[in-house]
Amino acid sequence: MESTTDIFIVEDSKTQAMILKDILEKNGFRVTAAEDGRQAIEILQSLKPRMVISDIVMPNLNGFELSLYIKSHDHLKNIPVVLLTSLSDPKDVMRALSVGADYLLTKPFDETRLIQRIQSFLMSHSERNPSVSGDTVEVFWEGEKHQITASRQQIVDLLFSTYENATYKNRELERANQELVFLKHKLEQDILNRKQAEDRLLESEQRLKVVLDSIQTGVMVVDPETGLISDINQYAVNLIGLSKTDIVNKPSEAFLCTENKSDSTDHPLKPLLEPDQFLFIHGGGSVPILKKVMPVKIHQKSYFLETFVDITDQVRAREEINKAKIAAENASMSKSEFLANTSHELRTPMNSIIGMSTLLLDMPLTAEQDEYVQTIRNSAESLLTIINDILDFSKIEAGKMDLESIFFDLRVMVEEVIDLLLTNAVDKGLRLRAMVHHDVSSRVIGDPRRLRQILMNLVGNAIKFTSHGHVLIDVTLENETDSSVLLRFSIIDTGIGIPQDKMHRLFQSFSQVDASTTRKYGGTGLGLAISKRITEMMKGEIGVESTVGKGSTFWFTVLLEKQPEINLLDGITSVELEKKFILVVDDHAVNRKILREQLKAWKCVVDEAASGQEALKKMHEYKQIGTPFHAAIVDMLMPGMDGKMLGRRIQADPELTGTILIMLTSAGKRGDVVLLQDIGFSAYLTKPVKQHQLYDCLSTVLGMPLTIVKKPAKPIVTRFSMSEEKKRGIRILLVEDNAINQKIALKMLMKYSYHADTAQNGVEAIRMMENSFYELVLMDVIMPDMDGYETTARIRDPSSNVKNHDVTIIAMTAHAMTGDREKCLKAGMDDYLSKPINPQSLLETIERWLMKKRFMTVESNMSIMSC
Fold first, then answer.
1. Beta strands in 756-856 (DSSP E)
2. What is the rounded distance in angstroms from the CA atom of residue 759 to the CA atom of residue 740?
3. End-to-end Cα distance, the chain
4. DSSP label at residue 831
5. Counting CB atoms within 10 angstroms of each CB, which of 93, 225, 372, 733 has the fewest?
6. Mean pLDDT score of the chain, rounded to an integer?
7. CB of 779 closer than 8 Å to CB of 788
8. Contact 43, 66 (CB under 8 A)
9. Concatenated DSSP letters of 48-80
10. Biggest distance spanned by C-alpha atoms of the chain
């Protein structure tokens, strides 16, 4: 029988057998296992291991019986038997000796010690002589006799293993004892620390109680499960008016009100308080409180900490403040109504004065009469400016000035400012120009009315304080994002300038540089203060740079949003003029720069000439390289060779006659149109030229056929002819009950070549609109029978019989207070003009809405065609 196993394990516990097997195999032993003694005997019939390790306590056949069996059979008796024991019974040693066991191993076993003992025993056992046997030995143990037939060596090994096991056990007991001593010391220290902590906690609780009883804030500790009051401080006790014992362990709802209880509480201050803000006190009363609740943990138990203070004085003060606020609001409302009525009463006669004086100036008057009428109109306009400044300043101070957010064309708005102030500049002999750089977007969203107000104020001041030279509006791009642009407006003049030590007075209310300025030039000193506030509302800044005797530059920045790309309100496109070669001829560098920036915005190829001779030279140069100029924009007044002489030279040169000629002048006179057409000019415009006028002019003349002699086949184009073409067929309805205002409005419209039908009130207007299709309605607001609001509602009503429900309605009213404009727009009106009506403002508003409607119609038609 050959051995294929080093160690044979007999263990009924599968877990213990697996652990022991893993340890032995990991250390190089070959291992076979059996679950009990009977299975071991069966396996030993065919197996002869080097060692048998057996548990003692097993079913069927225990370890002692198995050892006895092995030692009783000659083919097995030399196999060493190692028994596993816990040494809990001293008799196990004697039994082991009696059955011939060779060695004892204690459980639980340490892996390293186990392997060392097994290896030592195997080495010792291999050197023994198996033929040597011992005599029978009798041993008395605990009063009993035991006969031991084992060899002397077996007895020594067994007893030595027992001693070794006991030694290890003693060491383990010693370590355990040391750990117990350490744990005892630690426990004593922990007890001491806990006692000290409890003392500190008690001291802290006592201090906290002193603090809680001293503060002027009520404190309740409430059990969240039962709702009962666990503790309460002295302030709360005094406030409630009961003893602490009468409050503790009572429901918190008995003192701190719930919503239902607050509803039933008849307290004079209740309307000013929120629910859960009353404390019920002894005697049936209640006290308004300000309460806060937070969860806390006390001795590892959760509570609600409810703190509150008596706010009776604060509530009464709030009530007084509320009463004062209502009184102030009533006073403010009365003030607003007074201002509104005053504004209406002032503007109505002012409208008549300014309107009639304007009409008078269009009639033939003597020099003296003309002077008187001019004085009347100028004085009325000055008074109107003061009224507007005071009203605007009152709105700003009250925080009631709101900004609009509407689509508008920046360049058109700047040109409108030039138009409005050009007469004042020309009367003083000044050149008034505007330059919007080509990289500045025209199509923006913001409040054009307030932006125009800033420009009007700054440019008006520049004209006022400049006696010679020029005033220039320069608009540049400061910053740009995908959705907005930050623009810088600079108003540059060659006026008197401002001393450095006086600049701090600018932008202050009712302040000018010095008193002599007010006496000489007039003004309230509110304009710059208003401009500063409006600029800040537009997320910008305002400032000034100035040198005495040389002029000033007032600048401001505003943040405006960009219009969406699909917007059609911009009446100017650059498709038709793209890559057209244009020559600008002007001796004034600023004028050339302005035109160049405009033309670049339309992607034209632009060159400049400062004189007639330079212009002829450049025209020949471009002709020779095969890119002749499509058009030349020529200034009338130039030194040496003026615009007329240059036009004749160009028309006399066969190589240059294909270039279209456009004349610009700031000093036009009767007979110029006929003379220029004879020379060969295709268009004639007066400065400053609006951007859309220049674009329309170029688009028109570049498509105009020429005669055999290279002259225009059609009459010369002027800004009047272009305007007249657009105004034909426009039907306007004027709804106004005041005969004077009606006459003034009709004359203004007639002056700008518009014609209008009139209605005395809303009823008559509805009747006329049921019979005719109108494109625009000028609507007074205050009228008998049917006012402007009701009339607008009837027009917008789809069930009414008017022919055009979407007609543009522009309100004309003497009401100019905060909210009047919004009220008109909310009623369904499209725009708003305050009386007295400024002729230029009326024209701009009409043309803006007509342009908008025209482009909306074009878009609608394009959509229908695409379908």
1. 756-759, 776-780, 808-813, 831-834
2. 14
3. 105
4. E
5. 225
6. 79
7. yes
8. no
9. --SEEEEESS-SSS-HHHHHHHHHHSTTTTTS-
10. 169
Cα–Cα distances in Å, from 264 out to 257, 259, 270, 316, 360?
Answer: 10, 9, 10, 20, 75
CA atoms within 13 Å, Cβ hemisphere of 339? 20
> Could you tell me the CA-to-CA distances from 845 to 176, 419, 750, 756, 776 in Å, in that order?
103, 14, 15, 15, 11
- Note whether 585 and 609 are within 8 A (CB): yes
With cut-offs at 50, 70 and 90, classify the pLDDT of residue 707: very low
pLDDT digits (tens, 9 = 90+) for 771-794: 989 999 999 988 888 889 999 999
Q: How many CB atoms lie within 10 A of CB 499?
A: 12
Q: What is the identity of the amino acid at 447?
A: D
3-state SS of 454-502 is: HHHHHHHHHHHCCCCCEEEEEEEEEEECCCEEEEEEEEEECCCCCCHHH
The string of pLDDT tens digits covering residues 2-22 is 455 689 999 998 888 898 999
Task: Provide the pLDDT for residue 489.
Answer: 96
Report whether 377 contacts 350 (CB < 8 A): no
3-state SS class at 632: strand
Tokens of 635: 């200034």
Q: In which residue are the tokens 């890559």 written?
A: 579
Strand, helix or coil for residue 758:
strand
Q: What is the share, in percent, of the chain residues with pLDDT greater than 90?
A: 20
3-state secondary structure string across 29-49: CCEEEECCHHHHHHHHCCCCC
Token pair recorded at residue 325:
């606020």
Contact 691, 572 (CB under 8 A): yes
Alpha carbons 314 and 273: distance in angstroms, whole number = 11
The two tokens of residue 239 are 């406030």
Query: Own/partner pairs for 766-770, CB < 8 Å, 24+ apart?
Result: 766/791, 766/794, 766/795, 766/800, 766/802, 768/733, 769/733, 769/795, 769/802, 769/803, 769/804, 769/807, 770/800, 770/801, 770/802, 770/803
Helix (H, G, I), strand (E, B) or coil at 295: strand
* Cα–Cα distance, 813 to 835 (Å, whole number): 6
Burial of 354 (0-12, 13-18, 19+ CB in 10 A): buried
| Rounded Cα distance, 409 and 855, in Å | 14
Rounded to whole angstroms, the Cα distance separating 361 from 847 reads 24
pLDDT tens-digit map of 601-653: 888 999 999 999 999 999 999 999 999 999 999 998 888 899 999 999 998 88
823: region left, alpha or beta (phi > 0 left; psi from -120 to 50 alpha) = alpha
Here the tokens at position 306 are: 């409810």
CA–CA gap between residue 155 and residue 100 (Å, rounded) = 9
Tokens of 73: 């059979």
Q: Is the pLDDT of residue 822 over 70?
A: yes
Give the C-alpha distances (Å, rounded to integers) separating 420 from 55, 250, 565, 840.
118, 81, 30, 7
Record the tokens describing residue 684, joined without a space: 């004639």
**Closest alpha carbon to 634 in 597, 699, 683, 594:** 683
Q: pTM higher than 0.90, yes or no?
A: no
**788-796 vs 762-771: helix axis angle to the nearest 10?**
30
**CA distances in angstroms from 278 to 235, 253, 269, listed in the order given:** 16, 11, 10
Distance from C-alpha of 292 to C-alpha of 309, rounded to nearest angstrom: 9
Query: Which of 113-117, 519-523, 546-550, 738-742 comes out lowest in average pLDDT?
Result: 519-523
Query: 842 exposed, middle or buried (CB, 10 Å; 0-12, 13-18, 19+)?
Result: buried
